[in-house]
Specification:
alpha/beta, Rossmann fold, 5-stranded parallel sheet
Length: about 130
């Protein structure tokens, strides 16, 4: 795993973004985090041209909330998958649901892992390590 991993975190809940920021400060302080309050803003980022002046940096990992206004997690992932260079970015879907159909839909859409939001943050850390090591 490379040092200073770039991670995009997409979640509409300000408190959860703050919690993740604190989590990363403690467990992965060398990582660079970029936060998006909704999937639409991430899709706008992905659509920026790849010219020299406006090169869009791709993250090493995306943590993506499933339930969001505007674009939900699956719609956001669908948007990202329209761009071949973004298809290679691993995605971990964060969700408060235990609905197996939603979880199955996430994997069918290409996510590398799903993590229940109420899961102990240690599990999230282990999942991030496993996905980035793959």
């Amino acid at each position: 795993m490379k040092a200073n991993t770039l991670i995009y975190i997409v979640d509409d809940t300000e408190d959860y973004r703050f919690l993740l920021k604190q989590f990363f400060k403690l467990t992965r302080p060398d990582d660079t985090l970029t936060f998006f309050p909704d999937g639409d803003l991430l899709c706008q980022q992905a659509q920026r041209p790849d010219s020299d002046e406006q090169r869009t940096e791709r993250p090493d990992l995306i943590l993506l909330d499933f339930h969001m206004p505007k674009l939900n997690g699956l719609q956001t992932l669908d948007c990202l998958n329209r761009f071949p260079s973004w298809q290679r970015v691993p995605v971990i879907m964060l969700s408060s649901t235990t609905d197996q159909e939603e979880i199955d839909a996430c994997y069918a859409a290409g996510v590398k892992a799903t993590v229940h939001k109420s899961a102990i943050l240690t599990k999230l850390n282990l999942t991030i390590q496993a996905v980035l090591a793959a």
